[in-house]
Amino acid sequence: MTVHPGKGGQKFIEECVVKVSELRARFPNVNIEVDGGVGPKTVEVCAEAGSNVIVAGTAIFAAEDPEGVIQQLKASVDKAQAKFASNASS
To answer: What is the DSSP letter of 54?
Structure first.
């Protein structure tokens, strides 16, 4: 969780991202999910840390262009995952 559980629309807690990096280093082949405060401004840091599953409620449902937000989130995760795959095969 990258927010305090229980209420939608909270501010992203960036200090939690370190845990994602640590998990990705220890478990390179498992899904790592980030939930809370994730949206267009925060997805990249989550994806680059190793999260490959993103939960984004308010960022999508409150957006003027929900489909565009979804595409942006997916693109950020896909880009980071390609980088992880490339590094793993090197």
So the answer is: E
Q: Model confidence over 42-79: pLDDT tens digits?
A: 999 999 999 999 999 889 999 999 999 999 999 999 99
- Number of Cβ within 10 Å of residue 88's Cβ equals 9
Query: Which two three-digit tokens encode residue 49?
Result: 């840390």
Please state the pTM of the whole predicted model.
Answer: 0.84
Phi, psi (degrees; rounded to nearest 5) at 53: -130, 125
Q: Is 77 exposed, middle or buried (0-12, 13-18, 19+ CB in 10 A)?
A: buried
**Residue 84 DSSP code:** H
Phi, psi (5° rounding) for residue 85? -65, -40
The 3-state DSSP class for residue 74 equals helix
Q: What's the CA gap between 69 and 66, in Å, rounded?
A: 5
